[in-house]
Structure formats: C-alpha cells, structure tokens
Amino acid sequence: MWGFSHSSEPIGFYISAFGKMPECSMITETARLLNLIGLIYDAVLEPGLWNTVLEKTAEFVGGMGASIFRQDAIRKVGNAYYTWGMDRDYEQLYFKKYIHHNPLLPAMMTVGVGQVSSNSEQLVPTEFFETRFYKEWAKPQGLIDNVFCILERSATSAAGLVVFRHERDGMADAEAFGLLAVLVPHLRRAVLIGNIVEHKSAEAQGFSDLLDSITAGVFVVDARGNLIYSNKAGKNILLDGDYLRAAAGKLSARRSETDQLLQDAFRATGDGDAAISNKSIAIPLMAADGTRRVANLLPLTRRRIAGIDETATAAVFVHKAALELPNPPEVIADAYQLTKTELRVLLALMELGGGPQIAEALGIGTGTVKTHLRNLFQKTGVKHQADLVKLVAGFSQSMVG
Asked: Taken in order 264, 266, 272, 273, is the CA torsion positive or negative?
C-alpha cells in the first residue's frame, strides 16, 4: 500500500530453491504452493476466501500482513478491498491522512502491470526513514519494508497486492521477490475474471441469471471442449459463428492455430491446476472484422458451480481485448529522459506546488528539490513551475481525451 521494478520471475525460481531442501521438504513446499494457487482461483467464485489467500500469501512470501488495494496517485485516494494481519485503525488513518504523505505514491505510476517491487527498491531506506510517513505511520507499527505487485493499472491509478514486512522479517530480498512473482500470473487472472463475474451482484440473483446479465460470453466445458453451458452473450457469439463456433457440440475457434491453443488448454484443465498453471490461460481471438477478443480460462477442477454438470473442467470468459491507456508519466519520462527521482519531483509538484512540501513528502532536502527542478527546466525547455504543471496536464489530456 506504500508505493509501487522487478520483472516477474518464472516458477523455476521457486523450484530451484527446492533443490537446496531435503526431498520431503521440497514435496511439502510444492504442495503448499499449489494449494495457495488453488485458493486464489477458489476466491474468484467465493470472495470470502480472499482473506485466507492474503494470510497464506503473507506466510509464503514472508511478512506480517497483506492487502489487496487500489490507489489513485493524482487524487491521493484509495481503498483496501481485502486486508489480513494489519491494524484496522492504522489502515483507516493511511487512507484518511497519510496517503498524502506517502513518498512512494508517485512511483506507482511508473511500475508496470505484473511487476514485483518493494519499498526499499524504490527509495533509499535511509532517506525513507527520515520521512514523516515512516516516523508517524510505519514505524509505530514496526513496519520496515514491503514487497508488492501491480495487478491492474489505469492512467492515474493502480491496483495491487502488498505484503508488509515487519522489523523481524527484515528488508525485502530476492527470495521474497521471487516467491511473490510465482503468484503474480494467477493473481492477475483471478482479478480479471473476478471483475467479469461481478460477485456483489451474485448475492442478489441466481448464478445463471447473473451470467446472462453480463456482456462477456461465458462457456463451461469439459476436458474435451464439449459445451456444458453458455450464457446469453455466449449463445449469441456462437450464433454469429465468427471467431468461436460450436461444432458437433464442442467449443472451437475459427482459426486453426487458435483452436489448437484452445483445445490444449481444455485438455490441460482435465489434469488439474498444476498442469494449467504452466500453460497460457489467456487466448487471443480475432474476429473477421479485425476486432480482438480474449478468452480467459478458469480451471474448475475441485470446484463446483451450482446447477453445472460435475464433468465441467473449465469456465471460459470471452470479452473484448481492452487496450491499456498509455501512462502519461512514463511517456513524459521517456520523452525528456527524466530520472526516477526527477519524475517523482515533477509529479509531486502537480499535487503540492512548493519546494518545502515536496521535500517533506519525498523525504529529501529542499536543496535537492531545487537541483531536480533545475534539471527539469533544462530537460523540458520551460522556465517556470507553472509551465511544468501545464506540460504534465497537456500530456494527460492528449492521451486520455
């Protein structure tokens, strides 16, 4: 929740660590990982399980607590959707007051979706420990660091999962990065599918009625691709017979290469989560008019949906491919060759306006702020702080409008 770049490491990072363990320990740790992955997908259909997911994730990665959250770096607002292990009063105090003093909030704008990072990677710890944010919010809780991943991002905000590190856990290290990276693909899939299903509505109406009310095409199939269920939108997709078809009662793609991916994924679901986790669960589809779609697969092995045949092994969610909005700060940084700190000063200037306020928020000296502002003037070719604000606003409007 503090802030937000490490590329996600493959599962090989985690498996290689097993090589240092006795065989019995390796089997136990592998089982623990697979159980956690299973819990993540279970939480898609049972949102109440997210707190358990967070508890197990904190234990797995190493930390005192964890949270799934969203923060807006421009408006300085946010929300924790699910939290485990953290003090509720401090959590409320963060979003009410200390989100405005979080020196790492601007960095959230520069971290890519699917990336893993930490508080200590984004800011020199000795500088962070001098900030008001640390002294008044983090230190009283014994928090010293965190490790987090970005799951979704818009032009101004990001959603992610963070594991908080207590003093007894030590600073985030390569092992913590690698362990969270193993979970990132599964967390991203679960968040995407969870957004499509809209669980809050599910509490008020039957599952079948719910699926008919959403615009995404939903199909339930067995390991051979035989259609067991399709919602209203899914039936319309099949009636069009464009990028997806129902041939002899089986769900198939119009393009042969895409259909091969689809059928391979169906077969993998029959072997359980361990198999599907190593295959692509997001399959691109192309309509005849060039419109792009995405098919996301959710394995249903060991999960049952009321009213759905027990032979079902996968749910398929088909929706338009959403293009991510360009990220204005990233574009500005690339355009003017800004360093990370210069970009943070620029973004802080948008919110705070004055040098002393920027210095306090970022935990740096006022002289350092002046140096970075001089560099910004030189690199962007403007002469006044107001011109810098206009420059950022101009980029944002041209990219969002």
From this structure: positive
Partners of 70 in the beta sheet?
79, 159
Distances (CA, A) of 314 to 166, 260, 262, 263, 295: 39, 16, 11, 11, 12
144: its two tokens: 């010293």
Asked if residue 388 and residue 277 are part of one domain, the reply reads no
The radius of gyration of the chain's CA atoms, rounded to the nearest angstrom, is 23
Is position 5 within any domain? no
**DSSP one-letter code for 6:** B
- For the question of whether the overall pTM of this predicted structure is more than 0.85, the answer is no
Both 183 and 311 in one domain: the answer is no
* 157 and 306 inside one domain: no
Total structural domains within the chain? 3
CB 53 within 8 A of CB 60: no
Domain of residue 349, residue span: 328-400
Give me the average pLDDT of each 10-residue run along the chain (401 residues): 44 46 56 84 85 95 94 83 94 92 79 88 89 95 95 81 96 93 88 59 50 77 89 91 90 90 82 49 82 81 54 83 55 81 81 73 81 90 81 57 41
